[in-house]
Design goal:
With 101 residues, the chain is mostly beta strands. The chain has no helices and 9 strands. The chain has a single domain, classed as 3-layer Sandwich (Rieske Iron-sulfur Protein), CATH 2.102.10.10. The chain has a 6-stranded antiparallel sheet, with no helix packed on it.
């Protein structure tokens, strides 16, 4: 499912998309794109509203400061202790798409 064009998202930016009833945060770190579930596992808060830590490849929940690894979904700091879903991303011909299971 196409989400946006490659140039529509700057490095360090996250954007929320609804795909087949699922909220997804698409995040760009440098030339890489990551798609994760757009819900903090600690509390129902949109992760796409948080800060992106480009060097660490993490996204921070704006409410309580938990961070999540964008490659694995694993929580990197408390209070979150449960991973978030991670989805495959395909970049082709300037389009960024997510692959849902």
């Amino acid at each position: 499912m196409r989400l946006c064009g490659r140039s529509d998202l700057a490095s360090g930016e996250a954007r929320r998309f609804e795909v087949e009833g699922e909220w997804i945060a698409l995040v760009r770190t440098g030339d890489d794109f990551h798609a994760v579930g757009d819900r903090c596992s600690h509390e129902d808060v949109s992760l796409s509203e948080g800060d992106v830590w480009v060097e660490e490849c993490e996204i921070e929940c704006a409410k309580h400061g938990s961070t999540f690894d964008l490659r694995t979904g694993a929580p990197c700091s408390l209070p979150a202790t449960t991973a978030i879903p991670v989805f495959d991303v395909v970049v082709e011909d300037g389009d960024v798409s997510v692959v849902l299971p």
